[in-house]
Amino acid sequence: MMTYYVCRCLFSNNIFLKQYNLHVTYKDEEQFKHDYLQILRKRGCNTEEKIQEACGEIQREISRRRHLGEESLRRKDIISSHYVPLHPEIYHLKEEYLASEFLALVQACKANKSASLEEIFDRIKVEKAERVYTFPIFTEEFCRLFVEELSHFEDSDCPKGRPNTMNKYGVLLNELGFDEDFLTPLREHYIAAITSLMYPDWGGASLDSHKAFVVKYKLGQDTDLNYHYDNAEITLNVSLGKTFTGGELYFGDMFRPRETSNQNARFTEISHVPSIALLHRGQHRHGASPITSGERYNLIIWMRSSAVRNACCPMCFEEPDLVPTVGFGDGFTKQTETVDVCIV
To answer: CB of 128 within 8 A of CB of 248?
Structure first.
């Protein structure tokens, strides 16, 4: 069985302070103040008390990250022992859950042996944002059952892990039991056919792990998503429902670690409707505008290629300093064959 790893930068880099809309790196308090005190003061963190509160928030997040693997296993064991699914049948991928347009797209991608992508572009929508594509993926009936299952789990007494640094509400799907018989075959047998053609230069033909979660937006909870990039080579984002207004996605520029952020970047807005998948490069920066009513669920799959990230960590942009973990970790392995797409 393959062993996966995280990069040690997980315990110091890309920590999000939502109150100040700022991602930070934290080695110690002295370095933190040196690097961020000026910008924090401009954003309202202008007293020693507020600075200490920010440091405390960062230290709690670092502690959470250090225990991610063991805590995830603990929750998964409790869930598998105590949770009774509402729709157990949907934990196993079946083609009847997939939209006919998606099945036709996958078949066309698998049959495509030439350099021409004209037939593929007839079956996929090319969005105005660069190399962002949308297409139907699930049936509306499956989306309904999936959201019902998620709501049922939310109402249970089982422990629930936080999807990521930026989202407080949602579900880690590996803990709920969707990885082995649903998400892994979906990635390997269907999505990979598309990504290998659309993103050959971003590891699209060598995706070998993923992190999948559902995020939830609701008034009084998380309502939007700040501008960011993903810890993924390629991201699949599926709108599941329910009924909501607002919440448009917007895309800006690619993240480039050696360049100053472009404050004048132009944003391309995309309306995301239920049962539609949106595919993009992980380092293509994006966000979500606030919902104005209703409730919204999105399935996010961060797809990783160890052949790409083993050469260069997409979060610290250095050769990864590997730390063993459980499950897929952050998709790093100790295999020596790599593909260099690191932007320096």
So the answer is: no
Spatial contact of 203 and 284, defined as CB atoms under 8 Å apart: no
Place of tokens 């607002």: 246
- Here the tokens at position 142 are 């499956």
Torsion, CA 27, CA 164, CA 256, CA 278, rounded to 10: 180
Rg (CA), the chain: 20
Q: How much of the chain is in helix, strand and coil states, percent to nearest 5?
A: 35, 25, 40
- Collapsed DSSP state (helix, strand, coil) of residue 88: helix
Q: pTM surpassing 0.85?
A: yes
Sign of CA dihedral 146, 152, 153, 155: positive
The pair of structure tokens assigned to 280 is 């993009």
Long-range pairs of 323-326 with CB within 8 A, sequence gap ≥ 24: 323/5, 323/6, 323/7, 323/8, 323/10, 324/3, 324/5, 325/4, 325/5, 325/6, 325/68, 325/69, 326/69, 326/70, 326/72, 326/73
Cα–Cα distance measured from residue 163 to residue 225, given in angstroms and rounded to the nearest whole number: 13
Quick one: residue 148, left, alpha or beta (phi over 0 = left, psi -120 to 50 = alpha)?
Answer: alpha
Residue 304 in contact with residue 233, Cβ under 8 Å?
Answer: yes
pLDDT digits (tens, 9 = 90+) for 26-35: 999 999 999 9
The residue among 232, 228, 172 whose CA lies nearest residue 207 is 232
CA contacts within 13 A on the Cβ side of 295: 11
Taking residue 82's Cβ as centre, other Cβ atoms within 10 Å add up to 11
3-state secondary structure of 207: coil
State the pairing for strand pair 209-218/170-172: antiparallel
The rounded distance, in Å, linking the Cα atoms of 285 and 255 is 6
Q: Mind listing the pLDDT tens digit for each residue in 66-124?
A: 999 999 999 999 999 999 999 999 999 999 999 999 999 999 999 976 656 888 998 99
The most distant pair of C-alpha atoms in the chain lies apart, rounded to whole Å, by 62
